[in-house]
Amino acid sequence: SGIFLTDSAVEVLHHAEVVNVGSGVSEYGQRDVIIYKDYSASETKIEGDDYILLFEEDVLGKIMEVVDEQD
Questions:
Q1: Which residues of 34-62 are buried (b: 16+ CB within 10 A; e: fewer)?
Q2: How far apart are CA 54 and CA 38, in angstroms?
Q3: Labelling 34: which of 19, 57, 62, 70 has CA 20 to 30 A away?
């Protein structure tokens, strides 16, 4: 099960790779690629690297697999 999106839809969505999660988060883990709500992220810089912080309820979904329709 899941949601299939066209390439043009993916280009306008906000997505990111999960680096770490809090102890209460069970649905998402490291290296998952997630889609999140616009304007829900807080941006921060740690040791020169840019990160975003999200509440779990602001995550819209997880990208399970990218399928290339040209194959």
A1: bbbeeeebeeeeeeeeeeeebeeeebebb
A2: 11
A3: 70
Tell me how far CA of residue 67 lies from CA of 18, 38, 46, 63, in angstroms. Answer: 20, 24, 33, 11
- C-alpha distance from residue 23 to each of 4, 14, 49 (Å): 30, 24, 23
Question: Distance (Å, rounded) from C-alpha 33 to C-alpha 30?
Answer: 9
Q: What's the Rg (C-alpha) of the chain?
A: 13
What single letter denotes the amino acid at residue 9? Answer: A
Evaluate whether 56 touches 37 at the Cβ level (below 8 Å): no
> 8-23: per-residue pLDDT in tens?
655 567 889 999 999 9
pLDDT at 48 over 90: yes
